[in-house]
Design a protein that fits this description.
Elements (H helix, E strand, L loop, with lengths): L8 E4 L4 H12 L5 E4 L10 H6 L7 E3 L4 E3 L1 H11 L10 H35 L6 H25 L11 H15 L1 H9 L4 H8 L2 H6 L3
Parallel strand pairs: 1-2
Antiparallel strand pairs: 1-3, 3-4
Helix pairs in contact: 1-3, 1-6, 4-5, 4-6, 5-7, 6-7
């Protein structure tokens, strides 16, 4: 079945935090979609057809018949703008700026340290029989801690239950999958115990069926 505006195709693996973030965006906007599994980590890599859609071979990619996109941030922003449903970025310019800042922190600092280093070294690699590299963990800690502290601080400035204010927004959908993996890492759990001010946010998100359904480790 070809992609259409009413039922876009999302390409990627359900274990990817960025695929999860885009699927949360689609689901919260009430957009039915089809997930076509693409695993960039498989030994043979991705096929040529996918590279034509995403030349860097990363996930996710998106096709709704009208437009093809890659990069999760661009996909999520397009979905929010192009589809009806609740707006997923704040209206007020100051609040939107904070939301954009949180998204940038998540993509630039939190993901590389929470997921690519702490989770991979302490959970993913051992599960595959690989040794944990403590030097990588130690090097990730300062930026992992700063990322968490800044997200907490910026949330407090919005005076809302969610990361960017009173309503759910894209920062919540991007943070949730990363936070979910950070909790599984022993070092990540220690960081969250040191700075527990997102626990009420996490409990709030876990009440949503979309979060319970789509977040996988």
């Amino acid at each position: 079945m070809p992609a259409s505006k009413d039922q876009p195709i999302l390409y990627g693996a359900d274990f990817s935090v960025y695929v999860q973030a885009v699927r949360l965006t689609l689901t919260e906007k009430g957009v039915p979609h089809r997930l076509v599994q693409v695993d960039p980590f498989q030994e043979k890599g991705v096929d040529e057809d996918y590279l034509a859609l995403q030349p860097f071979g990363r996930i996710p990619a998106f096709d709704n018949g009208a437009i093809q996109l890659y990069e999760a941030d661009a996909i999520a922003r397009y979905i929010d703008a192009a589809y009806s449903g609740p707006l997923l970025m704040p209206r007020r310019s100051e609040d939107r700026a904070r939301a954009n800042q949180i998204l940038s922190i998540l993509n630039s600092y939190a993901y590389p340290n929470w997921v690519s280093r702490l989770y991979v070294e302490e959970i993913s690699n051992p599960a595959e029989g690989l040794a944990t590299d403590q030097e990588i963990i130690d090097a990730a800690l300062p930026m992992a801690r700063t990322s968490l502290r800044e997200i907490i601080r910026l949330r407090q400035e919005t005076y809302g239950p969610y990361l960017a204010g009173e309503n759910l927004s894209l920062p919540d959908f991007f943070c949730a999958p990363m936070y979910n993996l950070l909790m599984l890492s022993p070092t990540g759990k220690q960081l969250l115990d040191e700075q527990p001010d997102l626990q009420d946010w996490w409990q709030l998100l876990q009440q949503r069926e979309t979060v319970k359904e789509l977040l996988v480790a």
